[in-house]
Sequence to fold (312 residues):
Amino acid sequence: MPHTSNPRLITIGETMMMVTPARAESLATAEDVRLHPGGAESNVACHTAHLGIPSAWVSAVGDDVLGRRIVRSVEERGVDTRWVTSDPDAPTGVYFKDPGHGVLYYRRGSAASRMSPATLASVPLEDAEIVHLSGITPALSATCAALVDAVFEQVAASDATVTFDVNYRPSLWPEGTASDVLRQLANRADVVLVGLDEAQALWGCGTPEDGRALLAEPDRVVVKDGEVGATELSSTGTVFEPAIPTEVLEAVGAGDAFAAAYLAADLNGASASDRLRAGHERARLVLLSMSDFVADPPPAAATSTELTHSTD
Fold:
C-alpha cells in the first residue's frame, strides 16, 4: 500500500512471527495453529491505523518468507511500512503463544536485534505527532539501546510527543539491570504506560501514585491494574477508569491494544477519562481473541461470560 504523506504516529521496534493455537488450548495438545505478526510496536500501529490514525512502523526483518509475510500482513492492516528494512544476514524472530503457560521466544540474533541509530536515517520522526517506543527494544542489543537513545535525541527539539510503554520482559534483561535503565528511559518520555505489576516488580511500587512519584518527569503516567482499571496521573490531576469485566481467552497483546486506543483517542482530542475508556474497550477485543489484533467486536454470544480484564 503506497503512502505519500507523513504519518501522525510512528512506532519503532521488533515484530516476530507469532505461532498460536487456533483455539484456547495448550501447545502440548494443539493440532491446529495460526501464524500472525506479533510485536508490541507493530501491534500499536495496526490498531491505531484501524482507528483512523495514519500510522507507520519502523523495523527490520529477515530476508525470508516469515519477514515478507509479516510486512505484508502489517501493510494489509493499513500501516505504512516504507521504513522497514530486510536484512539478508539475519533471520526474522519467532515466538509461540502457549495459552495458560506464557510465551516461548526464539529471537536471539534476529534482524531486528541488529537495528541501530542508522535505522532512523530517513525516518521523519520530527514530523510525527507521536513517536511510540517500548522497553523491549533497548533490551534486544547494545545497538538497539543506542537506537532508542537516538530517537529521544532526534525528537527533542521537535513538537513530537514521545510515548513509552515500559513492557518489562524479565527474560530479555541481565539480572539487576532493567530497573535503572527502564526508569531512566521512562523519565525521558512525555507519556508513559506501565502495568502496576511491572512497576511493582521493577521499582517496588504498590499504587499508581507510587509509580507517578518515581516517574516525575513525563507529562502523564498511565498505570494499568489488570481487572481493576487504569489511572492517568498528570499535573492536572488523577483520573481513574474501571476495567470492563471480560472473558479472557489470551491476555498477550491486550496492553498494546490499550496503548493504541488510548493514543488514538488522545490524538482525537479526547478527555483523560475517554482516553482510558477507549483503551479498555480496545483491549477487551484482544482479550476475547487468540490474536494480538482484532478489527471488529466478536459476536454477542461470545462476550456473555464475565471473567477478568488484564491490560498488562
Observations:
- The domain at 9-303 is CATH 3.40.1190.20 (UDP-N-acetylmuramoyl-L-alanine:D-glutamate ligase).
- Residues 95 and 105 are 4 Å apart (CA to CA).
- Residues 300-312 have pLDDT under 50 and may be disordered.
